Amino acid sequence: MKKIFSILAVAMISALSFTSCETYSVEEPEMTAVSDLDGEWICFATNQDDPSDKTLLCVQITNTTNNEADKIWMTITDLNDATFPYLDAIRFKASCSGLGFSADAAKVEVPRTCRNPYYEQSYYSYQYRAGATTANATVNGSVTKNVDSPSGYKYDTISFTYTRIELDGTVIKYNVKGSKNTGWAEDMKEYADFAEEQGWW
Q: 142 Cβ partners below 8 Å, 6+ apart?
């Protein structure tokens, strides 16, 4: 009888060891074809013709419906609250290769809503509510990966030139520099301080 119990005990221990060693496959997180560029970026934009004219942009980069490796959608929202309670936002398609992206006089669409990252809410866009639009937009820039951030971690930065031409012929040219929205207050402090100084937030 003792021998039977010993055999059962050994069998149980063996079964438990096999169970504890069993591994399960974990799927890799799904990424877009433009994962090095996509995401939400918070940026300073300085008017090329008047360096004292500065604003804050929320730039959202997403993949296209067909998840093309050489195309992105860019939605650029000016966080200046001059059009409160709406925000000035436009959307257009750009080409990309590696960490670079560009668009030459791209046709502009007007998004119905746009996002204010500070309040973490979406608002109607000013153009959508006013029935206005922009004639076209031109961008040329790139992303830099793994830069030291104020929070002590690594983040990605972005820089590009941005020209928009309004329907009335007005041309606005900006130099844009910023970083990916990490959600860490330390990383976003410079942008938040600027917006609060302007009385926008």
A: 99, 100, 101, 158, 159, 160
- Residue written as tokens 């496959």? 25
Which residues does residue 141 pair with via DSSP β-bridges, in sequence order? 101, 160
Task: State the pLDDT at residue 27.
Answer: 52
Q: What CA–CA distance (Å, rounded) separates 130 from 146?
A: 40
Listed in sequence order, the residues at least 6 apart from 194 whose beta carbon sits closer than 8 Å to its beta carbon are: 44, 54, 56
Asked if 102 contacts 61 with a C-beta cutoff of 8 angstroms, the reply is no
CA–CA distance, 78 with 132 (Å, rounded to integer): 15
What residues contact residue 128 under an 8 Å CB cut-off, 6+ apart?
Answer: 86, 110, 111, 112, 113
For 121, the 3-state DSSP assignment is strand
pLDDT at 25: 53
Distances from the Cα of 122 to the Cαs of 113, 114, 199, in angstroms?
A: 6, 5, 19
Structure tokens at 102: 């560009």
pLDDT digits (tens, 9 = 90+) for 15-26: 444 444 444 454
Assess whether pLDDT exceeds 90 at residue 104: yes
- Give the C-alpha separation, 151 to 147, whole Å: 11
Distance (Å) of CA 134 to CA 7, 24, 107, 111: 81, 52, 9, 12
Using alpha carbons, select from 113, 115, 109 the residue that is nearest to residue 39.
Answer: 115
Question: What's residue 57's pLDDT?
Answer: 97
